[in-house]
Structure formats: C-alpha cells, structure tokens
Amino acid sequence: MPRNRTIILLSVGHGCVDVYQGAVAALVPFFIAERSYTYAAASGVVLAASLLSSVAQPLFGALTDRWAMPWLLPLSTILGGLGIACSGITGSYPMTLAFVAVSGIGVAAYHPESARVARIASGGSHAGMGWFSLGGNLGFAVAPILVAAVVASGGLRLTPLLVVPALAGSVLCLPVLRALRPTTGAGSDTPRWIGTDDRASFGRLSLAVVCRGIAFAGLSTFLALYAPQRTGGGTSAGTAALVVLYLGGAVGTVLGGNLAGRWDRVTVVRWSYVVSIAAVAGVVLVPGPAFYLFVALTSAGLYIPFSLQITLGQDYLPTRVGTASGITLGLTVSVGGLVSPLIGGVADAISLQVALAPLILMPALSWLLFRTLPEPAPPRR
C-alpha cells in the first residue's frame, strides 16, 4: 500500500477514535439540561473519562515497546465507541461514569500503538505524524456537531447511534494492518530507532504538555456552558464555540508541521505558547463576538505544538517510542481532565469566569518549561 494512503487511513481512523474524546465535553450540557447535574457533577463525567485513561495510557505504551500489538487498534476503537454509546441510556450517575470510563480505556489503548504504527508508516517524518494528528483533531471538531445532531433531536436515549464512527474506524484499521504486517505484526522484525534516551528533557516536555492539557481540557469541558454567558446566545452558541475550538486545532496541527519545516520544533512550540497566553486570556475576559476570535486563536496556539510534541517525545526517548507516545499523546492530555471537577467546584461556588481564569497561567508554564529544552537530533532508523 502506498505510504500516503496508509497515513490517510490511519489519520481517519484516529479521527474516529478522538470523536469520543470530544464527545464527552459535548455531552456535558445535555447531562446538565436533562439530568440537572451541577457543574461539579458534570465535570465528574469528564474526570471518569480521564482517570482510568491516565493510568492505563503509559501501561499500554510500555507494553507496545515490548510487544507489537496491532490488534489493539480495531479493538480499542470499538471499546471507545461502546462506552460513549451506552453513557446516555442509563439514568444512574455511577453507571454513566462507568460507561464513560470504559470509553476512556479504549482511547488509552489506541493511542500508543497507533502512534507507533504511524511512525513506522511515515518513516519517522514530522509531516506524516502531523497528518496522523490532524485526523484526531478533526475527530474532536466533528464531535460536538455529531452529538448535537443525535442528542438534541431525541435526547440522551439516542446515544447508541454514536457508535457508528467506532464501527467505521475499526474497519479502516484492517487494510493498514495487512499492509504493514511485516513490520507491525507479532514476532516481526519491528523497525527500531538508534539513539540515546534524554529522560530529563522528556520529563520537562511531559510537564509542559500536562499544562497544555489542563488548559485545553478545562476550556473544552466548560466552553459550551461559558459561550452563552459571554455572547448572549443559547445552546447553539456553545456548540459553535466547541466546533471553533476543535476545528482550529486541525488548522493548528497542519500549520505546526509546516512551521517546523522552516524553524526547529522547540522554537515553534515556544512561540505558540506565547500566543496561547494572550488567546486564553481573551477567551476568559473578553465578551461579545470577539470571544469566538479568541477561541480560534487559543485552538491554533494550543494545537500547533501537538504533533511536534509527539515527535519530540519520541526523539527524546528513541528506545521507548511506545512509552513516549503514550505519555505525550495520551497521558498528559488525560491528566488535564483530572482538574475539571476542581474547576466545576469553583464555578458552583463563585462563577465560571473565576474558575476558568487560572487556565491563563497554563500556557505560560509550558513556555517556561520549553525555554530549557534542546532540539534533539533525529534518531537513526
């Protein structure tokens, strides 16, 4: 199979999985409206999706460093879809948390192995990993539209229809795995990259991505509720804000790959976080139509580093590509969801604006951490 076609299929499959990460935040307003959840209770749903995912992600990464497990791709895709599909059919809050947690485990199992396969398929190129990441960003962008189309018309009881992307994504995995079987299958001579692990730099990178994840998770969880307050619109204003946040991520990912072709990755990421500081401040503080402009700038600023941080992590840990992918692509993103209940508690006690204000500091911390990071030399295959 031609390399470009393989990357495209992996990218679309990635989107079919990340629909379910975006769907959790998109479902929050419907849980509040239909089940009268408080901000804290609704953010607990996001926590459920993130908590087990945070624990499982590095474990799956370590496993894929030892054994090739390409069969995880279709299986984890189905698991991610089933969890979200079942989350709306029970009125029980604990069962809702359990189903969303199952989805989180599916997402956790998918990312380390898929990033390893994408690195093999792309030959380690930044552009190839950028296209792979783009698929996930588009999945996030489609999620609020898909959820609104399904749930707004018939309520949470229609969430089983949300399993369709998972079925499509699992099918799309199969031709890729057949084409790459000599290099991804169990017992195969899996391509290795030669280099020396820089664990100190990888640790600082991981902390920077955690701060980025906190900012993104906090905004994505509450943006649909905050947008009507800032713009005077209704539910559609919240859905539109989420679409802008996620769709801008697709633009940011492609832009990041292009900018990294002109400057080194660390420099591009540093400047992106500088832009993000002002953009997040605008989202929190500026009312009216300009709110959407700042959402778009925030999305681009937080997503330009996304695929670059994945390849940086893999280059800092060339002998532990699965672990590096599990942490930079999944764990540090999931950790962001762990702070959502704290934000929700402050919003219930004071206001949503006060609760979101500390997110302005997160890209600033990421920028500070990146100031000390070197640009690693690409490892030899």
UniProtKB/TrEMBL annotation:
Any one Gene Ontology molecular-function term assigned to this protein's record: transmembrane transporter activity
Pfam families recorded: MFS_1
InterPro entries: MFS, MFS_dom, MFS_trans_sf
Organism superkingdom: Bacteria
The keyword Transmembrane helix belongs to this UniProt entry's keyword annotation: yes
Bilayer topology annotation: Multi-pass membrane protein
GO cellular component, as recorded: plasma membrane
Subcellular localization, as worded in the UniProt entry: Cell membrane
Name this protein carries in UniProt: MFS transporter
Major facilitator superfamily (MFS) profile domain residues: 6-375
Ranges that cross the membrane: 7-32, 38-60, 67-85, 91-110, 131-152, 158-180, 201-227, 239-261, 268-285, 324-344, 350-370
